[in-house]
UniProtKB/TrEMBL annotation:
Keyword Nucleotide-binding: yes
Gene3D superfamilies: P-loop containing nucleotide triphosphate hydrolases (3.40.50.300)
Organism: Paranoxybacillus vitaminiphilus
Keywords: ATP-binding, Nucleotide-binding, Transport
PANTHER family from the UniProt entry: ABC TRANSPORTER ATP-BINDING PROTEIN (PTHR45772:SF1), CONSERVED COMPONENT OF ABC TRANSPORTER FOR NATURAL AMINO ACIDS-RELATED (PTHR45772)
Top-level taxon of the source organism: Bacteria
Record GO terms (molecular function): ATP binding; ATP hydrolysis activity
Protein's name according to its UniProt entry: Amino acid/amide ABC transporter ATP-binding protein 1 (HAAT family)
Matching InterPro entries: AAA+_ATPase, ABC_AA/LPS_Transport, ABC_transporter-like_ATP-bd, BCA_ABC_TP_C, P-loop_NTPase
GO cellular component terms given for this protein: plasma membrane
Residue ranges of every copy of the ABC transporter domain listed in the record: 4-252
Length: 256
């Protein structure tokens, strides 16, 4: 059993089948990638893992525990964090404030308790601030820490999006096209951060990305979806040489 087990997950929207009895395992400490054509069901799968969608049938297991019916904030508290393809930040707030908001599910002292027990709330605030400062340093965001996110370049905003998820100290980090829309230099930076998160923080990463060079370089295992069905699972080399994957997605130019 892996850190995450997807067991026969099916997701329907009326008559549309977004995911069709998909099963795979993600091992602890690996970089696991989901690839496939547009509309294949990749983001739908991340939504099922993070709790934004509830599967029509099947189950999602985290460290052996069935979390299929848990709400997103409960999964985040367990250690599953998500960065979105479309940036979901608060543009008028600073980088620091956006990352502090990412810590909210870790905060045990509520607003009312803070009014009654100021010392306890203040101490907790200091501890959370310390964790956020570590993320700012890790992602090299010190120079923009007090800058409103909406004024930053697209590449920096994507980095803050990843940072907000990282502020939760996740065991599993879900990254939905973290390099989409970036230039080559920004892609290289993001790839380096993903490697650092994986190696230094020992975080399991589930990655969706259309850049096949990045996928093949970073991944330990890859699952391929096509029209909601799992058509292949294996190492990068196995996926590159899978005739069904070549026909459905990769094309001959990606082989070898």
């Amino acid at each position: 059993m892996g850190i995450l087990d997807i067991k026969s997950v099916t997701l329907r929207f009326g008559g549309v089948v977004a995911l069709d009895h998909v099963s795979f395992e993600v091992k602890e400490g690996e970089i696991f990638s989901l690839i496939g054509p547009n509309g294949a069901g990749k983001t739908s799968m991340l939504n099922c893992i993070s709790g934004l969608y509830r599967p029509t049938s099947g189950s999602v297991l985290f460290k052996g525990e069935d979390i299929t019916n848990l709400k997103p904030h409960k999964r985040a508290a367990l250690g599953i964090a998500r960065a979105f393809q479309n940036i979901e930040l608060f543009p008028h707030l600073s980088v620091l404030d956006n990352l502090m908001l990412g810590r909210h599910v870790r905060m045990k002292t509520g607003v009312l308790a803070g009014g009654l027990y100021w010392g306890k709330a203040q101490k907790e605030e200091v501890e959370h601030r310390k964790k956020v400062e570590e993320v700012i340093d890790f992602l090299e965001l010190e120079h923009v820490r007090n800058t409103p996110v909406g004024t930053l370049s697209y590449g920096l905003q994507k980095r803050v999006e990843v940072g907000r998820a990282l502020a939760l100290e996740p065991e599993i980090l879900l990254l939905d096209e973290p390099m989409a829309g970036m230039n080559n230099e920004e892609k290289e930076d993001m790839a380096r951060y993903i490697i650092d998160i994986h190696e230094e923080k020992k975080t399991t990463i589930i990655l969706i990305e259309h850049d096949m060079g990045v996928i093949m370089d970073l991944s330990n295992h890859i699952a391929v979806l096509d029209f909601g069905k799992l058509i292949a699972y294996g190492t990068p080399k196995e996926i590159q040489n899978n005739p069904r994957v070549i026909e459905a997605y990769l094309g001959e130019e990606h082989v070898g």
